[in-house]
Amino acid sequence: MFNISTQALFAQLLVGLINGSFYALLSLGLAVIFGMLNIINFAHGAVYMMGAFCAYFLLNVFDINYWVALILAPLLIGGLGMALERTMLQRLAGLDHLYGLLLTFGLALIIQGVFQNYFGSSGLPYAIPQQLTGGQNLGFMFLPNYRAWVVVFSLTVCLATWFAIEKTKLGAYLRAATENPALVRAFGVNVPRMITLTYGFGVGLAALAGVLSAPINQVRPLMGADLIIVVFAVVVIGGMGSIMGSIVTGFALGILEGLTKYFYPEASNTVVFVIMALVLMVKPNGLFGRA
Questions:
Q1: pTM, full prediction
Q2: Are the beta carbons of 211 and 74 closer than 8 angstroms?
Q3: Which of 9, 64, 104, 170 could form an SS bridge with 43, CB 3.0 to 4.6 Å?
Q4: Which of helix, strand or coil describes residue 282?
Q5: What is the pLDDT of residues 6-64, one digit of tens each?
Q6: CB 253 within 8 A of CB 278
Q7: Where are the domains of the chain?
Q8: How far is CA 93 from CA 41, 99, 132, 242, in A?
Q9: 137 φ, ψ to 5°?
Q10: Nearest-angstrom CA–CA distance, 14 and 289
């Protein structure tokens, strides 16, 4: 028989896996945007929050369930991201990264301020879909069905994204467009459109994470602000622009954070940043990053 402390350990590991799922999806979106477009998207946390609110509105205003929202919310928020890229970020092409960071940081503050003004700081409930209620008794712990779904689904999306970018012809065009856009245009590829779609896809990944998070963390205007600094640390540790680095580091740091909460709770909020400092001292480009 497992004692209570062991059950608590597995419970914290599960919490770490859940957080790691969100870290991986969010950092993957950041890596796609930075790796393909060289844009440091500080509005990513606000987009994550908007994905959760989009699912909430779809359910409570239009009576559209979770499963449809899982597809529709990333498409809607991704479309909004493409409009943002076309109207604002495209004007910063060729300039220093700092301009894009300041623009997206300002947008994040505006978006969060508007939502907080209308909805306050308290969380809004979003019900777990009926098909995923309940859980499984594994003997050593109780595994809620919805949390298991979040881990499996986010891992599947992350690996599918890695495969599309690293192993397909489309991914080759995307990588080539960041290195030599003139050459890619010579093959008849519309590079500005590709950049816009890529930004929309990265934003859509953040919105997808928001939909997945809504039944667990509730829907709050500042839910993204609480997460974005940790996600940026994950991206730096994995390597800026590294797809696989974001996936591996996101899940690994989530688990490590869960273990720290069990063994030494006082350090759970800082362990990610300590690891980031150590990694940067040894390998400034990140674990999977390139020079």
A1: 0.93
A2: yes
A3: 104
A4: helix
A5: 888 888 899 999 999 999 999 999 988 887 777 888 999 999 999 999 999 999 999 99
A6: no
A7: 4-282
A8: 14, 10, 44, 21
A9: -90, 110
A10: 28
Strand partners, 142: 137
Query: What are the pLDDT digits (tens) for 215-271?
Result: 999 899 999 987 899 999 999 999 887 889 999 999 999 999 999 998 888 888 899
**CA 114/CA 58 separation, integer angstroms:** 19
Q: 109-116 — which CB contacts under 8 Å span 24+ positions?
A: 111/43, 111/46, 111/49, 111/50, 112/46, 112/49, 112/221, 112/222, 112/224, 112/225, 115/49, 115/50, 115/53, 115/221, 116/221, 116/222
Could you tell me if 198 and 90 are in contact, meaning their C-beta atoms sit under 8 angstroms apart? no
Number of helices (H) and strands (E), helices first, in the chain? 11, 2
In Å, how far are 21, 60, 114, 134, 269 from 131, measured between CA atoms?
A: 20, 19, 34, 9, 34
Give me the DSSP letters along 148-204: HHHHHHHHHHHHHHHHHHHHSHHHHHHHHHHH-HHHHHHTT--HHHHHHHHHHHHHH
In three-state secondary structure terms, 135 is strand
Task: Residue 105: count other Cβ atoms within 10 Å of its Cβ.
Answer: 16
- Residue with the two structure tokens 């994470």: 209
Residue 83, pLDDT > 80, answer yes
Q: How many CA atoms lie within 13 A of 275 on its CB side?
A: 24
Tokens (6 digits) for 280: 């940067």
* Alpha carbons 210 and 260: distance in angstroms, whole number: 25
Per-residue pLDDT tens digits for 146-192: 999 999 999 999 999 999 988 888 888 777 776 677 777 887 778 88
Fold of 4-282: ABC transporter involved in vitamin B12 uptake, BtuC (1.10.3470)
